[in-house]
Specification:
mainly alpha; 0% strand
Length: 386
Amino acid sequence: MGLIIISFFAFVSLGLPDGLMGVAWPGIRHQFQLPVDALGIILVCGTAGYMLSSFLSGLLIRHLGIGGLLSLSCAAMAGTLLVYAVTPLWWVFVIFSAVGGLGAGAIDAGINTYIAKYHSTRMMQWLHASFGVGITSGPFIMTMGINATSHWQSGYFVVSMAMGILSVIFLFTKDMWEGISASSREEDHDENNASLSETIKSIQVLLSVALFFLYTGVELGLGLWIYSLLTESRGVAPEVAGIVTGGYWAMFTVGRIFAGWYAKMIDIRKLIYLSISLALFGVALLLADSSLIITILGVTLAGFAIAPIFPGLVSSTTSRVGFRHQANTIGMQIAAAGLGVAVVPSIAGVLARIFGLEVIPLYLLSTLALLLLVFIISNSHSGENT
């Protein structure tokens, strides 16, 4: 139980920085005099660090242990957020986004693998609900900081201190993870596991990887662009837009908590189908822009609906790709998720610069429809890998 609690705290810490950026971005753009799509630079650099550390997560765990890696990850992220708050230079801001990505990537892959191997679908949903707690808190922290000080930097100061405290906690509890690290090393040499080259050649694995790329792009794309869409295109007051953005992540967290309760009562594939369908409806309401109430309803419904998809996809990895490919595929999926976080919202920014911010809901609706199509194809091929 102790390791589960620590894992939950780790995922809270991973969610906090993502929640800050969506509300802070208009202020960051103004300070550094950037175009609307410059957010893509931050996402790409952060993803480069994230994917590198995800790829090397097994090696890092062997040398540092999961506890040591947790501590180092939080320290890197705390340092990154502190630099965000104090630097007057855009290129320094960009470089440290890669450092923050390095801090987040390895622990994300490591804990997802740990929960998938040793715990139930319910625990996987609640693990990712913890991420939701962090990413929900971010917009509220940033909104309160801006209201109190008129500066977006204050939100980063607060979260940097919290991350530093978490780093110390993980450092003092790292010995609790030693047994898990040893077990993982033994399982890594299991002769029943497929080689990485075999896994990469599997069509079903590639489809599974595509699911994560598309899903995380939509999830974070909504969270990052809602505030800018409401304030800069629809004339909504910043305080209200901040609450709506936080509400998106709050419903996202509630959705995962609920999914943890009913995960054993509904087939995971049916749950994912239902979630994508409801999310499509929610984004369609956002696109309609018939009134602020309808927009808020669409945003909150989308947040609630998409919540169970990521942990559901992680938990059902084996059913899609087979046991032999499970360990390799989970790492590849996490890396693809990181790439999706960078690419999909960045394309949204480019489109917004060309066509205006109102194109973003249409773009995300189309991406969700593609996610549904890939999931249907993936299910039609499931069972081919054993």
